[in-house]
Specification:
Low-confidence stretches: 53-59
Order of helices and strands: HHEEHEE
Mean pLDDT: 86
Oligomer: single chain
Strand order of the largest sheet: 1-2-4-3
Structural class: alpha+beta
Number of helices: 3
Radius of gyration: 26 Å
Strand content: 25-35%
Largest sheet: 4 strands, antiparallel
Helix content: 40-55%
Shape: elongated
Length: 142
C-alpha cells in the first residue's frame, strides 16, 4: 500500500509540478531570447532615429492653437474637433469626438513632422463603430 501511494505521489510530482515548471522555463527562455534580439535591433536603429530631426515650422508666428486647428481641418478632422484649451506653457489639450482613428494618427504624425508639435499624453476611447474614437490629446511644442 505504501509503495503504491509512493508511486502515485511520484507520478503526481512529475506530471503536476516538474513538467509544467519545465515548460514555463522554456517559454521564459524563448521570451528572453526574443527581447534580446529586439534590443540588438533597437540599438542598431537608434542612431538613425536620433539623426532624423522633425521639420520645424517656418517661423510664421502662428500660435499653437491656430496651427492645431488649421492642421486638423486640413486633415479632414474639422467636424470631429470638439474643443481645445491651454494645458500649461507651450501645451494645448484637444478633444476629438467621433474621429477616424487612422486620420487622427496621420494628423498627429504630420503635426510632429511639419510643426515640431508632439503628443504629451492621450486618452482614446471607442465611439461605437470600428475605427471611430473619442479622444483627449495633450499636445506640446517641442
Amino acid at each position: 500500500m505504501v509503495q503504491i501511494c509512493g508511486a502515485i505521489a511520484a507520478v503526481v510530482l512529475i506530471f503536476g509540478v516538474l513538467i509544467p515548471l519545465d515548460s514555463s522555463v522554456a517559454k521564459a527562455k524563448s521570451r528572453v531570447a526574443q527581447k534580446q534580439a529586439d534590443l540588438v535591433w533597437m540599438k542598431g536603429v537608434a542612431p538613425v532615429l536620433a539623426a532624423s530631426q522633425p521639420v520645424q515650422a517656418s517661423g510664421n508666428g502662428e500660435s499653437l492653437i491656430v496651427i492645431v486647428d488649421r492642421s486638423a481641418r486640413e486633415s479632414g478632422l474639422g467636424s470631429s474637433l470638439a474643443g481645445s484649451e491651454p494645458s500649461g506653457p507651450g501645451g494645448i489639450q484637444v478633444r476629438m469626438e467621433k474621429a477616424s482613428f487612422d486620420s487622427m494618427v496621420g494628423w498627429l504624425s504630420r503635426l510632429s513632422q511639419q510643426n515640431g508639435i508632439g503628443v504629451d499624453g492621450a486618452t482614446i476611447d471607442t465611439a461605437g463603430a470600428p475605427g471611430i474614437v473619442n479622444a483627449a490629446i495633450v499636445l506640446r511644442s517641442q
